[in-house]
Amino acid sequence: MEKRELGKTGLKVSAVGFGASPLGHVFGDVPLSVAIAAVRRALDLGINFFDTSPYYGGTVSETVLGQCFKAIGVPRDRIIVSTKCGRYSEGFDFSAERVTRSIDESLSRVDLDYVDILHCHDIEFVSLDQIVNETIPALQKIKEQGKARFIGITGLPLSIYTYVLDRVPPGSIDVILSYCHFGINDSTLVDLIPYLKSKGVGVISASPLSMGLLTDSGPPAWHPASDELKGACKLAAEHCRKKGKQITKIAMQYSLLNKDISTVLVGMNSPTQVEENVAAALELSSSVIDKELLNELENILGPVKNQTWPSGIQQS
Q: Where does the record place the NADP-dependent oxidoreductase domain (predicted)?
């Protein structure tokens, strides 16, 4: 598995990252034995980056991931672990007091002395000025205490990153985690990369399948995309099927093409899913993406290219 530098952190993360939200049973029950097998298979195949959050499954994802690490007995220096703060099953709270308590709770659940990255989770749902003036300073103290090595911010609207990064001291934020903005249907994250590089910030991209849009089974009922976007993605999936191809595979490969994106996070809940994602990545490293199919899909998705959906509160 290819390893890529993550901004200026010095971390070398696997090009495919293990998204642990499914371990919180958010997409259905995952027996602990299956979760352990999935994490073990990921490690065997060269995945070293694992991402979780107290929000996923109401803390279940963090707890299960910690149980997996303990059962496998994986050396701490073999894994890069990120978790989040500020978003919980009971709602949002980015106060200094809550995020300071949050990291201790998370470390207890994942059974680690520190996490490599602590992200502010989905900051568009609160005042960004609170993130700048209260949350990030609190996370700096957590970093100084050695409980988190690096600090990140996450969310859907790309505008949140420039707002915050322009207002915090240089070096305050080490990474960003963007989702649903680097895939076949939406590649707008690319436009932000030069800016992020200028700030010395590493880039993590999540959800290359756009939360289920680019799958044969289609998105879940709650998916916030427009009917037009859902319909175009459904046509794209059908086109792949007719050609004997999987839209998930080419979508995964597309998401790995840009080397300025250090790692692509994919939710995984079984050894089979791990193997499929790693196989797509390894195939890409030894050959080229199916450009003919990619062009056909881009034509189908052209009318909805870069269409997204609202998320969070209106920022002043």
A: 16-290
